[in-house]
Structure formats: C-alpha cells, structure tokens
C-alpha cells in the first residue's frame, strides 16, 4: 500500500492527519494524491458543491500594507476608490445573483475595519436585503468586535469572512500593520457571536509548503467550515507584482492536501482562478467543492453561467 493510500484511508476512517503526515503527503505523486482527495471529497460531501458571489462594497485607500493588495493606500495601483455602497446598489446586486440561482452573496469592504457608523449602516442594508431576497449573506468587514458581529447576525448575516492569508510564521512577510493574532481574535469574536466563518488565504506569495500546511492546521483548529484558496495574481504597483506564479499542477497539489487535512470543510477556489487554463476543472477533480463565481474584488472572474455549465458536466449539484 502506498503512503497516499495509507493516509487517505486514515482520513476516510475519520482520523486526522498530523503535520508530519501532511508534509509527507505533500510530496507524493500528484495524480494519486488528487484521486485520493477526490475520493475523500465524495465520502464527506457527496456531489454537493458550494457556489457564491461577492461585491466590493467599499474600495481603496486601505490603511493596511498587505503586500498582495491592490486596494492598499501604501501602493500605487489602478484600483477604484469609493466609499461604502448604498442600499440600492447592494440590493440590486443581491437580486441579480439570486436571479441567476446563486445561493450565497458576500459583501466585502476595504480597510482594517468598518467604523461603528458604517456597521450600523450595513445592518440597515442587510435587513433590507433579507426582506427582499432569499439569498444567504456573508460579510467581510475587517477586524470587528464581538458586539458588532452580534449586531450583524441579528440583522441577518449568516457567515463572516476573514482570511488568515498564510501561516503564522510567514504572516509578517505579507503584512506588518496588523498581526496574525489580530486575525485570530476577530475570527473567534465572530464565532462567539454565533456566526460561522469562512477563512483561508493566498498561495504563491513566496511561502513554503510547510507554511501552507501550517495554515491548514490552524484552520482545522479553529473549526473553519469554508476555506477559500486564492492563487496570487500579481497586481502592478504592489510588492508582489513580479512574484513567480504557481503552476496549475502545484495548485492542484495544494487543494488535494487541504482536502485531506480538512475533509469536512468546503475547499473553495477564489481569486486567481482566471489564470488557470482549465478555469479550475482540475482542482474540482482534486478535492475542491466550492467556488467564488463572477468578478473578484479588483480583478475579473468567471461568469456564473460558465461555472454552472462546468459543474453540471462534472456531475456536481449546487447547494
């Protein structure tokens, strides 16, 4: 029996991989690894697939210096700059996606955190969206406090998004204006408020395979049920603009290992998918069972119609 078969059977039987086992798995033959990951995905999720969309609810002039981000005020990019979107615009987006059969819609804002006034404004908007649509709502409003998350939950939010971005060890190479611990504190505050959390990160920023596995293990410790994986898309003007891009095969490897470390979570392809020649097909056959469809925050994405056609071809059912 191969290493991949042995460790895959452990996961299928309900066991958890150790860090050493995950590191060993990372180096196994790709196709065997991806096949096992798809087997684990089918065991824990059947053919269920999670599809969501996002809207950039507030853009640019972010005080944080995340080295990948087009919206950081520390860098000179061509990202749009505008304040918090009004009710009508966000409601129109929610209705648009609901009409296309999208189950979940996320509102994402630039900045370290929304102000108290902005949170109140978004609560009013969210209540209206909940009154006039049936779409599930997710928000990404930065490093909020528990009482603010409670207010958002009462308004109708079901899930909060807050990416770890990378491992604790590598995080200072990505951002120095807030810390990895700041991220953990916000995630735990959202959970304490009764919200589920969507959290993952970006691969291809210069991190090592060990960093990727460390992030997966932290997500497992936090009990994260939705894990978006973004492929770095170097934005001109940012410090990572010239970073060498990960290959499609390497992304499949990462997805497969994440599936085996996090068998019960939705592994969701997010930003950078448009860089892949197959638009994610290989990853959807290597353990991934979720996607952010439509446009990303500052880059073009893949249409919901295109994604639905691909998912239907692969035998998935959007839930």
Walkthrough of the structure:
It is a single chain. The chain has 319 residues and is α/β, with parallel strands linked by helices. It has a single domain (3-7, 17-318), classed as Aldolase class I (TIM Barrel, Alpha-Beta Barrel). Helices cover 41% and strands 14% of the residues. It contains eleven helices and ten strands. It has helices at residues 3-12, 19-26, 30-45, 87-99, 116-132, 146-155, 180-192, 209-222, 248-261, 281-284, 304-314, and strands spanning 48-58, 104-109, 136-140, 159-161, 196-198, 201-203, 226-231, 266-269, 290-292, 317-318. Strands 1, 2, 3, 4, 5, 6, 7, 8, 9 and 10 form a ten-stranded parallel β-sheet that branches. Helix 6 (146-155) packs across helix 7 (180-192). The two termini are 35 Å apart. Its cofactor is [2Fe-2S] cluster; [4Fe-4S] cluster. Catalyzes the conversion of dethiobiotin (DTB) to biotin by the insertion of a sulfur atom into dethiobiotin via a radical-based mechanism. [2Fe-2S] cluster binds at residues 138, 198, 268. It comes from Evtepia gabavorous. Its EC number is 2.8.1.6.
Taken in chain order, the helices and strands follow as HHHEHEHEHEHEEHEHEHEHE
The end-to-end distance, rounded to whole angstroms, is 35 Å
What is the overall silhouette?
A: globular
How many beta strands in the DSSP annotation? 10
Q: How would you sum up the major sheet?
A: 10 strands, parallel
| Rg, Cα atoms, Å | 19 Å
CATH C-level label: Alpha Beta
What is the name of the CATH architecture? Alpha-Beta Barrel
Which segments are poorly predicted (pLDDT under 50) over 5 or more consecutive residues? none
Helix count, DSSP H or I runs of 4 or more residues: 11
Total number of distinct structural domains: 1
How large a portion of the residues is in β-strands, by DSSP E? 5-15%
How much helical structure, as a percent, in the residues? 40-55%
């Amino acid at each position: 029996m191969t290493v991949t078969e042995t460790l895959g059977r452990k996961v299928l039987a309900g066991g958890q991989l150790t860090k050493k086992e995950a590191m060993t798995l990372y180096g196994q033959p790709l196709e065997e690894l991806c096949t096992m990951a798809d087997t684990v995905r089918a065991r824990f999720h059947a053919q269920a697939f999670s599809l969501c969309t996002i809207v950039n609810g507030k853009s640019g002039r972010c005080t944080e210096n995340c080295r990948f981000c087009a919206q950081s005020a520390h860098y000179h990019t061509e990202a749009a700059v505008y304040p918090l979107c009004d009710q009508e615009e966000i409601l129109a987006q929610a209705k648009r996606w609901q009409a296309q059969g999208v189950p979940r819609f996320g509102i994402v804002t630039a900045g370290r955190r929304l102000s108290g006034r902005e949170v109140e404004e978004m609560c009013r908007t969210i209540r209206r969206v909940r009154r006039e649509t049936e779409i599930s709502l997710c928000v990404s409003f930065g490093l909020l406090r528990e009482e603010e998350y409670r207010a958002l939950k009462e308004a109708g939010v079901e899930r909060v998004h807050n990416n770890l971005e990378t491992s604790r060890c590598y995080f200072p190479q990505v951002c120095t204006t807030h810390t990895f611990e700041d991220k953990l504190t916000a995630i735990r505050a959202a959970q304490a408020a009764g919200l589920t959390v969507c959290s993952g990160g970006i691969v291809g920023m210069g991190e090592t395979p060990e960093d990727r596995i460390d992030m997966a293990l932290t997500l497992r410790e936090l009990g994260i049920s939705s894990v978006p994986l973004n492929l770095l898309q170097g934005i001109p003007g940012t410090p990572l603009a010239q970073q060498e891009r990960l290959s499609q095969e390497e992304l499949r490897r990462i997805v497969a290992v994440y599936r085996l470390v996090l068998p019960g979570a939705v592994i969701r392809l997010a930003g950078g998918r448009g860089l892949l020649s197959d638009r994610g097909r290989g990853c959807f056959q290597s353990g991934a069972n979720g996607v952010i469809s439509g446009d990303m925050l500052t880059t073009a994405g893949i249409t919901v119609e295109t994604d639905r056609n691909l998912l239907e071809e692969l035998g998935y059912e959007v839930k």
